[in-house]
Design brief:
Elements: H1 4-14, E1 19-20, H2 23-27, E2 43-45, H3 53-62, E3 67-70, E4 88-91, E5 98-102, E6 107-110, H4 116-125, H5 142-148, H6 155-158, E7 165-171, E8 177-181, H7 193-197, E9 206-213, E10 220-228, H8 231-243, E11 250-255, H9 256-266, E12 276-284, H10 286-302, E13 305-310, H11 314-325, H12 327-332, E14 337-340, H13 350-363, E15 367-373, E16 378-385, H14 390-409, H15 428-432, H16 434-447
Parallel strand pairs: 2-4, 3-4
Antiparallel strand pairs: 1-2, 5-6, 6-9, 7-8, 7-9, 10-12, 10-13, 11-12, 11-15, 14-16, 15-16
Length: about 475
C-alpha cells in the first residue's frame, strides 16, 4: 500500500479533492472495457492543472510508484488496468481545456482530457473539420485517442488520429517536459518523438497538451444504405468499390445478427431480413459526390444489392449513422459478457475474413455479431457470451486465438484501432517477431528505466 505520508504529499501538491485514497473510490478505476481481470490501484490522482503533471510524475518516479494514465476508460484492450495496490491511476479528465483553435493556420491546441465529440463540435462552429471519429467519441478523450491512435468510421478516406497530430508537449518518466513537433505544416527538427508517442498507450510519457491539424469541411456528402441477401456479396462489393478507385468517406458493414440487434434496440427501420448491409457515404465537391454516388449505387447493384437507398436529408443521414453507432450497445445488451475484437486485414481480404468469422461461429457454437469499418479492412467480430460459463468462454478464447491466426495469415494485424494493452500482448511476437519485441523493450527501458509508466502493457515485462 502507498504510505500515508506520500498521500499527504500528493494532497499538498494537488489539493485533497484531487486525491482519492478510499477503496470505494479507487475501485471505480480498476477496470476498462476489455475482458481482463480488475486491479484496484493504491491511489487515484485527478489534477486539474496540467502544469502540475511534471511534479506528480517526478514524485511517482522517485517513490517507484507505477502510473497508469486514464482518460474516460473506454479502452478495449486492458490498457488502463492499474499495476497493483502500490500503483497510481492518473486521471486526465479535469485537464479539459481547448487552448486554441487557429482558423488561419488550421490547427488546434488542446489538453488531453478534452472530449472528442465536443472538440469536433467546437471546431465545426469555426467552419473547420476534425475527421477522426472513434465509436466512443461522445465520451473518449483526445489524449486517449492519441495514446491508442484511435480510428473511426471516417478512417478509410481521412485516416486515423496519427494523421492529425502535428506536435505535443509531454512529460517523460522523470517529470521533465519534452517538446516534439510544431504548429507548422512541416517540421523535421530532431528525432520524431511525436510519432513514437502516438499509439504508445501511456508507456513512454504523459501528454501535457497536443497540437492537432484541422481541415476544411467537405462541401457536400451523400449517405447510402445498400441491402444484400448474401454476406459474401456484401463483402465482395467492398473490394469492388475500392477497386474502382472510389474512396468513400465511410464504408461500413453490418451482418444480419447485428442488423436485428440494432433494430430491436433502436427501431431504426433497418430491413431485418437482409443478410448484410453496407452503409456508405461519399463526400467532397457536389459534382464529385453526385458522380461517385451513382457509381457506388451501380457497383452495389451489379454485385447483388437488392436495393440501395439514398438519404434524402441530414436527418435521414444521421439516422443511418446512428444505426451503425448503435451496433455495439445493441449487441452488448443480449448476453452478460461482450468481447469485441478488431483484427484487421487488407481490404481485398474482407470476403475471406467474413467467411472465416462465420466459420468460427459454427465451429465453436458461438453467437458472433460482425460489423465494422469494412472499407479499411477493420471488422469488429463481437462475441456474445457469459464469462461465468467456463466451458463456453473457453470456446470463445479458442475462437479468438484462431481469429488472430487467420488475420495474420491473410496479411493482417492484431489490432486496427483498439490497441494491444494486456489483452493482446501475448500475441505480439506472433505478428512482429522476437527482434521487434527486444528492440521495443530496449526503448522502453532506456526511456523509462524504473518502468513506472503503464508497466507490462503491449510488450509484457520490460525488465
Amino acid at each position: 500500500m502507498i504510505r500515508p505520508a506520500l498521500i499527504r504529499e500528493f494532497e499538498n501538491l494537488l489539493g485533497s479533492g484531487s486525491v482519492m485514497s478510499q477503496e470505494t473510490d479507487r475501485h471505480a478505476y480498476s477496470y476498462d472495457s476489455a475482458m481482463v481481470e480488475k486491479v484496484v490501484p493504491g491511489l487515484v490522482l485527478r489534477p486539474d492543472n496540467a502544469d502540475l503533471l511534471g511534479d506528480v510524475i517526478r514524485l511517482c518516479n522517485e517513490n517507484r510508484l507505477p502510473v497508469t494514465v486514464r482518460g474516460s476508460g473506454t479502452n478495449l484492450s486492458g490498457g488502463t488496468i492499474p499495476a497493483g495496490e502500490n500503483s497510481v491511476v492518473l486521471l486526465t479528465n479535469a485537464m479539459n481545456r481547448i487552448l486554441e483553435i487557429n482558423a488561419q493556420d488550421l490547427y488546434a491546441r488542446v489538453e488531453p482530457g478534452v472530449i472528442t465529440a465536443q472538440f469536433a463540435a467546437r471546431v465545426a462552429e469555426k467552419g473547420l473539420f476534425y475527421p477522426p471519429d472513434p465509436g466512443s467519441q461522445a465520451v473518449s478523450t483526445l489524449g486517449g485517442n492519441v495514446a491508442e491512435n484511435a480510428g473511426g468510421l471516417r478512417g478509410l478516406k481521412y485516416g486515423v488520429t496519427e494523421n492529425y497530430v502535428m506536435g505535443m508537449n509531454f512529460f517523460d518518466p522523470r517529470g521533465e517536459l519534452i517538446k516534439t513537433g510544431a504548429k507548422t505544416v512541416k517540421c523535421v527538427t530532431g528525432f520524431n518523438l511525436k510519432s513514437l508517442m502516438i499509439g504508445s498507450e501511456g508507456t513512454l510519457g504523459v501528454f501535457r497538451d497536443i497540437i492537432l491539424k484541422l481541415i476544411p469541411p467537405p462541401q457536400a456528402s451523400q449517405a447510402m444504405l445498400a441491402v444484400f441477401d448474401s454476406v459474401d456479396a456484401a463483402s465482395e462489393t467492398v473490394s469492388a468499390i475500392i477497386a474502382e478507385k472510389i474512396v468513400p468517406c465511410t464504408l461500413e458493414f453490418l451482418d444480419n445478427f447485428t442488423i436485428r440487434s440494432v433494430e430491436a434496440f433502436r427501431g431504426a427501420g433497418l430491413p431485418t431480413d437482409a443478410m448484410a448491409l453496407l452503409l456508405i457515404e461519399v463526400d467532397g465537391h457536389p459534382a464529385q459526390v453526385d458522380e461517385e454516388a451513382e457509381k457506388v449505387t451501380a457497383i452495389c447493384r451489379q454485385h447483388g444489392a437488392g436495393s440501395v437507398r439514398k438519404a434524402s436529408d441530414a436527418m435521414e443521414r444521421d439516422s443511418i449513422w446512428q444505426a451503425r453507432r448503435d451496433a455495439l450497445p445493441a449487441l452488448s445488451r443480449q448476453r452478460p459478457t461482450t468481447v469485441l475484437e478488431d483484427a484487421t486485414v487488407p481490404r481485398s481480404k474482407i470476403p475471406d475474413m467474413v467467411r472465416a468469422i462465420n466459420g468460427l461461429a459454427q465451429k465453436y457454437d458461438l453467437s458472433i455479431g460482425t460489423f465494422g469499418h469494412a472499407g479499411d479492412g477493420n471488422l469488429h467480430p463481437t462475441f456474445l457470451t457469459d464469462r461465468r460459463d467456463e466451458t463456453e468462454f473457453g470456446r470463445v478464447e479458442k475462437a479468438i486465438d484462431e481469429l488472430f491466426e487467420i488475420a495474420l495469415a491473410l496479411g493482417g494485424t492484431l489490432s486496427g484501432e483498439h490497441g494491444i494493452g494486456t489483452a493482446k500482448s501475448r500475441y505480439m511476437e506472433q505478428e512482429t517477431g522476437p527482434g521487434t519485441i527486444r528492440l521495443s523493450r530496449a526503448i522502453k527501458k532506456c526511456l523509462d528505466p524504473e518502468n513506472i509508466l503503464n508497466p507490462d502493457k503491449i510488450i509484457g515485462g520490460s525488465k
